[in-house]
Specification:
about 375 residues, alpha/beta, about 20% helix, 11-stranded mixed β-sheet, 6 helices
Length: about 375
């Protein structure tokens, strides 16, 4: 055998060996079977109510008579858009949550604090720069200018446009978020794993919603900065929660204790796969909209599809999961449309153009009305 041939054989063997090692190390992720895009609310944790809080969430109470003739009483965040003309700003804390999966369930980590997106921002910084917190988008719906403001404020102004149109100073804003130290969860195989994203490209992690909420309760109890007067938002990245094994939950909101002194909180995921369920801030817009209009998850309504006043759920099954694109700072965010009070049987004349939803993408009141 010539030296040249021997060397060639050796090189070829090394290439094949390296390829075999690379192939052996390549992780194959399973598909999520029967995946369904959804959001949840957890019942009010009355037993976890804060003891005599020094400050409570700014809130107001209202009512309407639905199409069945029943009086619906509700509590919402802010001051009354009917009797006040002021701006309310709710302090916000963002808590990034990193989830780590071991060799038995995915061998991967999903980190919102340190993952850098295509625009050069981290997941958390891109959320803060979005129309959820940045008042840089003009919202003109059906030719009516609701204002250049944050998205959820624009929604609520449209929700009560019959009075807000003349109350130009009425706003409910989210304060510039303060980011607290990132928390880490090491996910056991019994509670979650890494799977192919059923709604887009790439992979996602999964984690049981009750185990996740137990972690949030521990963290909130240990953080003195989190009080009923502020809104803590827990952010995950490319992670869907599961309930009873069913996937995929993009977020939820709840409260510890009843109004007026309960501690409200929310959590959502940020998925960076284009066109996916929970893409960028779409899940966050859903959950913050619902927190605004049902902060203590106790605004009961007479709807067959919705027992409480959840303004995001009726539209989440629409095209693009109910979201519409808005460009701000060179990045296109997806903001989910939300229904107005008229959907739940209130007089539709309360809202802008008597629409039933922010994007005029709902044509019927809720089932049962």
């Amino acid at each position: 055998m010539s030296k040249r041939f021997a060397v060639s054989v050796m090189v070829a063997s090394l290439v094949l060996a390296c390829a075999s090692i690379a192939f052996a190390q390549e992780t194959k992720y399973p598909d999520i079977l029967d995946a369904k895009p959804m959001f949840k609310t957890l019942p009010n944790h009355a037993k976890l109510a804060p003891a005599a809080p020094a400050a409570t969430l700014t809130q107001w109470n209202g009512s309407f008579k639905d199409l069945l003739g029943h009086t619906i009483n509700y509590t919402m965040v802010g001051t009354s858009p009917i009797s006040t003309n002021v701006t309310t700003t709710i302090p916000v804390y963002i808590i990034p949550v990193k989830l780590k999966y071991g060799k038995s369930n995915g061998n991967r980590a999903f980190d919102p604090q340190n993952t850098v997106l295509s625009n050069g921002k981290t997941v958390i910084n891109n959320i803060i720069a979005s129309p959820i917190f940045n008042p840089g988008v003009n919202f003109t719906q059906g030719g009516t200018n609701l204002g250049t403001t944050q998205y959820i404020d624009a929604f609520q102004r449209g929700n009560f446009w019959s009075t807000v149109a003349s109350n130009s100073n009425y706003h409910v804003l989210l304060g510039t978020p303060k980011v607290l130290a990132e928390k880490t969860i090491t996910v056991t195989a019994a509670l979650g794993s890494v799977m192919n994203n059923p709604f887009g490209s790439g992979v996602v992690g999964t984690y049981d919603i009750n185990a996740f909420d137990a972690k949030l309760q521990t963290w909130m109890a240990a953080q003195k900065k989190i009080t009923p007067g502020v809104l803590p938002i827990f952010i995950t990245y490319d992670v869907f929660l599961t309930s009873g094994g069913g996937c995929c939950i993009g977020g939820y909101h709840s409260a510890n204790g009843p109004q007026p002194g309960g501690q409200t909180y929310s959590t959502t995921t940020y998925v960076d796969s284009p066109g996916s369920f929970s893409q960028d801030v779409s899940a966050l817009s859903h959950e913050i909209g619902e927190w605004l209009d049902d902060p203590f998850v106790d605004n009961s309504v007479n709807c067959n599809d919705n027992s409480i006043l959840e303004v995001g759920d009726p539209l989440e099954g629409n095209s693009n999961y109910g979201a519409y694109p808005y460009t701000l700072g060179g990045f296109t965010y997806n903001l989910q449309s939300l229904v107005f009070l008229g959907y739940f049987g209130a007089p539709p004349s309360t809202s802008v153009h008597s629409w039933l939803a922010f994007q005029n993408d709902e044509s019927h009141v809720c089932p049962g009305q």
